[in-house]
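Below is how a single chain appears once it has passed through the pipeline. First comes the sequence as given, then the structure the pipeline wrote out for it. We keep one example in the README because the format questions we get most often are answered faster by looking than by reading.
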Amino acid sequence: MNNATQTNRNPEQARRWRLILGRYADDSLDAAAHCRGTDADLEQALGYLYDREYTARGHSIRSGRGGSGPSALTAVEWLNRTRKLFPSSVFERLQTQAIERYGLTELVADPATAASLEPSPALGAAMLSIRGRLGADMEAGVRTVITRVVEEIVARLRTSFTQSLLGRRDRFRRSVQPLAANFDWRRTIAANLRHWDPATRRLGIEHVRFHSRVKRRLPWDVILCVDQSGSMADSVLHAAVCASILAGLPGVNVKLILFDTSVVDMSHLAGDPVTVLLTAQLGGGTNIAGAMAFCEKLVTRPSRTVLTLISDFEEGGSVSQLLSVVTRLREAGVTLLGLAALDESATPVYDARVGGMLADRGMAVAALTPEHFADWLGEVIR
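Resulting structure:
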């Protein structure tokens, strides 16, 4: 059976192919697709964005059906229409690609339009990546977007850091607070053994037990050493937010260091993540050894210091010098954490060879989301 016959027998398949191919679809797909009323709007919205891929490669644009081409829309009209046509998760991806990949910077030229964008980490990372290419007239819109993205991330992460760092679980005291972080699975099983059903091999849960939490022995010094090379936009965004949350916790002294081939001490702005992000200069090379040597000079209480290196570990400087610094810090009693970069789908992206060498020198290396980093940091601070 040929493809034409298959699409004729499956109108929905034909419809999807027509939307994928857009203005380049064969005319026979129109008859087979039995198009829905909104398909013309979908095609125009997708074409407005993705036809730019063809023009960037030097291809001419074939006239759209019904004479409605990309020029019929403005960037703001496209944004408003796309928001209505697609689910929120798809819309977030489209708006991020529109700004980062296809240069629709008109969307942030007006603060009101910028405020209508859906805040997400991906959008924030996109803004950081292109900020250096934007004019001064877009500064207000960029600040609006970054502020809303930061507020969204803070709201999501604050509870995790507060619970993880202000108290550790006390396994000998019960708590009535039903928090997932305090769940006591051992006591829960013991309290419900009488509900065990041998026939189904299932345990019915009637009573749930939770750990209590005790106040930590504070203070601690936490140094965040953050790689701001070109591929680290998402990590820089989350690191700035994490630093601001930590800076607001009692008994935690935060140092925030950004680096590429140079080092910038942003500790005085640790509580202001928006300013940190608007000041950060993404791009350039990477000198991790130099940054770690800078952080070494900030250590005054080694046994009560956690130094977290947030990087893709792609060292552009001297690997041997990096390993020497890490060895000295570890021998001095500093707790060393290495947080590997993640891409937008939370997949680790880092130099495993250098990461392995750092681990051999006493740095605990992991690839974690910010929520899990909060738990990890809470475990090492005793």
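The two ends are 68 Å apart (CA to CA).

See the next section for the split statistics.
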